[in-house]
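User: Hello! I'm new to structural biology and keep hearing that structure can be predicted from sequence alone. Could you demonstrate with OPT oligopeptide transporter protein-domain-containing protein? Please show me the input and the output so I can see what each looks like.

Assistant: Of course. The first part below is the input, the amino acid sequence of OPT oligopeptide transporter protein-domain-containing protein. The second part is the output, the predicted structure written as tokens.
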Amino acid sequence: MKINVIEAAKHAKELWLKKDPRDEDELQSDVQVEVVEVEEHLLEWMGAKLGVPPSDMDGGYPREVHFMAEKLAEMSLEKALELVKTNYDYHDHDNNFRHEYRMEIKGLLDIFKDSPVESEKEDPENILLIRYWATIFDWWSPYPEVRSVTDPFDETDTTVETWRVWVLGTIWVAISAFVNQFFSVRLPAITLDASVCQLLLYPCGRLLQYALPDWGFRFRGKRYTLNPGIWSQKEQLLATVMVTCANGTPYITSNVITQALPIFYNQKWASDYGYQFVFMLTTQMIGFGMSGLLKRVAVYPVKAMWPSLLPTLAVNKALLAPNRKESINGWKISRYNFFMVIFAVSFLYFWVPNYLMNFMQTFNWMTWISPRNADLAIVTGSIEGLGFNPIPTFDWNQATALLAPITLPLYTSVTGFCGALFGGLVILALYYSNNSWTGYISINSNRLFDNKGEVFNVTRILTDYRFDRDKYLAYSTPYYSAGNLVAYSANFSIFTFSFVYTILTDWRAMKDAIVDTAKAVRYIHRSNYYGKVDPYSRYMRKHKEVPDWWFYLVMIIMFVLSVVLVEVWPVDTPVWCIVFVIGLVAVFIIPFTVFLSYTATELTLNVLSELMIGYALPGRFMALNLVKALSVQIAQQAQAYTKDQKLTHYAHLPPRTIFWLQLWATLVNGVVAMGVIQFQLGQEKLCEPDNKMKFTCPEQTTFFTASVAWGVIGPKKMFNKYPVMKWMFLFGACAGLFFFFVQVTMPKLMVRWFPKHADRIDFYRRKFLYFNPLIFVMGIVDGWSPYNLTYKVGGLYLALVFNGYIKGRYLAWWRKYAYVMEAAIVTGIALSAIIIFFSVQYNPKDLDWWGNSVVNAGYDSEGIPPNVQVPEDPGYFGPPPSECTGAVINLDTITVNGTDVSFDESALLDSGLIVIAISDPQFKSRARFFFDCNTNVSLKFNFGHHTIVSDQSSFLLPFSYFSGTPSDTECMFAVQNLAVSGPRSG
């Protein structure tokens, strides 16, 4: 059917621009007639703009097209210009708003504002287009991704909060909590994903709909019945929210297991269920209080799009929305049938790469050419190497492990991949130059290593699970691989980088949120939606909202419980740590959540909290683990709750219902998970390497190793060898300032200096805005150690196909099928993985043939020999574990063999000499003394009446010889064969 746009535009122009001398009542009746006359034309035109074709059955359009056409007919030109101008400015730095839409709107605004040609302003098509965009902004969403899974109206005649929601939601929360916790200690883990639960909720709801009788009673005018009727979209979505907000295992399971088991810290009191329950409750629910603040920056704003929640809405719509017979780019299959077909294909295909033909999962074909070529395995290997491989896998699950190709915006996928690619090149440079001894050990491992290139054995430096300095000095300092070194360094920079960059670029939204929060306290009875004009907020006004004090009350109660936790149980943690971690999260949670809501990329605080507590409380691993659990869970739970509130916002669900459902689901999840842990702690050989059920606890082992490295040994010792890491915090802050200047400030200055080229400057500015430096850095952080490019290359290809080619050329197809397809594939994989585990992996039934064994042939699987061999003499690399702690000392003179010492600051950088910093408080002077570690040096120190002479390239300054009080550390590290030590400060 050909759409007559000009005719529709002319009708609209006649309706809104003509002058009529008749009275208002008569004009109003004519207006209604005119609307009826142009309705079919507007429907056709609106359907084409929205990408919704007419039905193949009767040529009609769905309700959303009728609704938007009616609102378009009601939109005046004056109001349209005001709305479009306001929203154009609002989305100025919004990378999720399509560039072609922005250019179209800019052209329209230029016409109506500056065009000297009156005919352009009166052009019917221009008038219709400006009114169309105003209608989109005022009644729906400017993002086609959001429009594809939401409605511009609210279904008010459907069931919402019923007993079925509470019962089915609780059952599936408990089932998923049991399965996920029970198999979380297995390698590989088996998970019951939220998308699988969402799919299984649907037949359960339908079963109750058809099986139960309509028995009920009335109370205060409302009927309560055993069968409320049809299982509705809103019921399905409410039950899904319960599962999604409580689908994972509580973070503290790693704390409890590493504390209680003999293989780790062997603290039997940690098996107490009361301790576990209070610990779980505080970590899971403190974040609830912060979500009350976050809703002002990540729920109400339209720009807070949350790409990661859209597949959930898409599946809900596919399962329960009425199916229309329509042709979308030649495709007539309904969403539901499409979902079921892709689900079945995904379920069956997953058997091929994961059981029948393993080479299709890990397609490390380049290493097959020369399996014993170490350099080839390092660069192209998918298991032990860096994965520089153009065709690394044919498994959707592996290709999308780090990069969701449909959910993530295309600029996020491309920028993140570029960051990972850059990180890989830096790793290669570090490894082959043997920088920081990385050439002696595996290039991309996430483990710690000793000075012989072996995996660091933390038990060799512990006595009764506490740090033993003598054992540490006799063994080795820990070393990082090149991949780990790059990932950690990037991770340190991301904290200051994200804080500075996000605060500067989104300062207005954050300031408004803080002001709104302050006003909410001052005007406690004022609606949260006061001043909000977007369509979703207008619809939500009819529901009873959740007062802010509810959120804050939950946080206060949980804070009190956390104080009880550290005071009642021997967790070796001062109360100030709880205040500290809440403050730390409060500082970073707003920029982190804004970033997450725009890009679907998550930032966490685990490394930063480890570093800060490791410095503040050295040797107290329990304090470090508790603070780490709080920092991670508070932030993640606050963001998860906020994400579900945004889903509520999109689906017009009652906020108070969501509040109570989230609290209940979180409690059920935690209680079930703690019960499973009680069972697991009683099992023999849990977490031991030879466990027959493969319950070897890989995550808990990593957690234990990190607690030893950061909590027992401490970051000071860990990073004496890697001083550049400490500068990454400053680098991140400077990089945030730099990119804000380049992307925001400099273009404004250039427009002021070169006004004739304003359009060209604006064009390049918007192009450069698609490069988000935070995503680039996160590509380095999450792309390496132990992951590699194998887990991103396939995802990049899929992103270019679906979010680049298909979305750009076949937007209508993408709107209808893309999210449904992604959800169907993920659901099929999850169910297939569970079936494969119980059928052929639980009692192994291996297929021994070339297609399964070739993956493990050669160095890529067996382990790659180090690039630099450990020297036979002295049998280790790097300095000995002895460390120079130094001290500030009062002295009269320093002589070396009777000769005055000369100082050369550059010597340390040029030749790696030892430096000792010495100060004289009396004369307020300081000197640095360097000497060559490869020669025998006799040092003579005169301290008043005492003289110390040391030979054999080493010296020791006993504490008793100091005339002053030792204070801060200045002496740096020893190099090669020289052992330099000194008294500890404090």
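User: So the tokens describe the shape?

Assistant: Right, they're a compact way of writing down the 3D structure. Reading them back into a model, for example: DSSP finds 39 helices and ten strands in the chain.
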